[in-house]
Amino acid sequence: MRKKRAELEAPDTEYLLVNDKGKKLYPKYVYRTVRKYLSQVTTIEQRSPHVLRHTFATHLMNEGAELNSVKELLGHASLAATQVYTHNTIEKLKDIHKKAHPKA
Prior knowledge:
Elements: H1 27-41, H2 49-62, H3 67-74, H4 79-82, H5 86-100
């Protein structure tokens, strides 16, 4: 049974994700765990923490979040790194326009 963070003897407070012993999770462990659970719920080829990050940003943009807010949430240093997520939003707007406009 997995323990809750508050139940651990001395969790490493420097890290958000810790194991049952309160030590930091290593990137490879996180990657394998995400891959395992994504393979249970999707058929997409790429299954990684980055896919979840990309999906998170895309959903925010599609729901009208401001680009600067998404930039901050992702921890990007420059706005240019975040602009990749606007492509999906533009495509969604084109699709909505095509469906809704009588002369589209």
